Amino acid sequence: MNVNYNLYLVTDERTPIGELLSIVEEAVQGGVTIVQLREKNSDGLTFYKKAKHLKALLKSYQVPLIINDRVDIALAVGADGIHVGQDDIPLSALKRIVPKSMIIGVSTQTIEQAQLAEKIGADYIGIGSAFPTKTKQDATVLSMETLKAIKDSVNIPAVAIGGITLDNFHQLKEINFSGIAVVSAIMKAKNPKEAAKKLFQ
């Protein structure tokens, strides 16, 4: 699958399923190119239902669905990929479980983490936090120099994540990321479609 990471939407699990589908559809119409369903605290059934409906919606737009952390959910709904953090199932173990066709992304905060992810076979990395974020309050904010150094240390696509808004995303342009990942900038926007249009590079 040829994946466009340009505008990467990460969902907010506090959003009820009906509203979630509506926001995501508008966002995709506005330019979102890939969607990650992130449910840190939901029970398995809620996560599965959201994933199943989201997969059906995104398939009609030919936009990949990435599942955060939960390999079982990703496999159960036939998601296009999975994204894991440094404290989740190791990438080497993950690659033994999922089909070769599945996109695998890894969150990174250092050059060492990024290079290891590439070496083991990640398809892309997320780098952050780029700015202070309410979504993940314990996230360490990385300087522009560090973001660039991590991005330049690998040859696979790199997506900036963390606190990215309409007011600050321009600051990342010089680093030439493969894309930016946003949560609140679209999920909390009054008009998700317009917000996506403005964020689309």
Secondary-structure map:
Blueprint: E1 7-10, H1 17-30, E2 34-37, H2 44-61, E3 65-68, H3 71-77, E4 81-84, H4 91-97, E5 103-108, H5 111-120, E6 124-127, H6 144-152, E7 158-161, E8 179-182, H7 184-187, H8 192-199
Parallel strand pairs: 1-2, 1-8, 2-3, 3-4, 4-5, 5-6, 6-7, 7-8
How would you describe this structure in keywords?
TIM Barrel; eight-stranded parallel barrel; 8 strands; 8 helices; ThiamineP_synth_TenI; alpha/beta; single chain; thiamine-phosphate diphosphorylase activity; metal-binding; 201 residues
Total number of helices? 8
Uncertain residue segments: none
The Cα radius of gyration reads: 15 Å
Within CATH, the superfamily carries the name Aldolase class I
The geometry reads as globular
Strand content: 15-25%
The strand order across the widest sheet is 1-2-3-4-5-6-7-8
